[in-house]
Design a protein that fits this description.
Blueprint: H1 3-11, E1 14-19, E2 23-28, E3 33-37, H2 38-43, E4 51-52, E5 57-58, E6 77-82, E7 88-92, E8 100-103, H3 105-110, H4 115-119, E9 135-137, H5 138-143, H6 145-158, E10 162-164, H7 170-180
Parallel strand pairs: 9-10
Antiparallel strand pairs: 1-2, 2-3, 4-5, 6-7, 7-8
Length: 201
Amino acid sequence: MTTLVRQLKAAFRIESVAVTNNGVQVTWKDGHHSFYHNLWLRDACHCPECFQRDTLSLNSSEGEGHDPLKMPLNPITEAVKIDREGNLDIVWGGQEPGHHSVFDPSWLRVHCQTDPALKQRRKPQLWDSSVSIPHFDYHEVMKDDWTLLLWLDKMLELGVVMIDNVPKNRESFQALIERIGPIQQRYHPTHIFTLDTATVS
């Protein structure tokens, strides 16, 4: 385990877990409480059967692996514990006996949906026609990390930005997406890009 991983795990340590009829209640060492619904936890499983770590995508090709349409609507936990590394360890029962999920505590804490946790997140800026939508140059975003950071920051703040001077081809559009991070395959069979070469800027 790297030093960085140890630091992240130390920042968010699970004190105890309790099973409810539809989820898992987590008490953290800093006194914070989180609740995670079973359906959300099962859908977020990153085991080798459900998730491809090399592509950071769900393993849902050709009906194999993680198929949300076949996932039980009310997943049942067979066993829930904190493992030796401090992770949340779940063995599922019911319609999926023996399926095993492990969740990193830092990842769980970041995805906490309780009101106190949500209030700590940055609030999006509401906008209307009076707001000037930021513009960024495609080539600057592609070559300069600082411009990339500014673009992502504005996207997080406003929810929309304009990218100018984008080459009119699929490869450039996909490269822009991959500048943010790996494209994650969800539940549709292929990546679909719609490109209007007449109006794209």
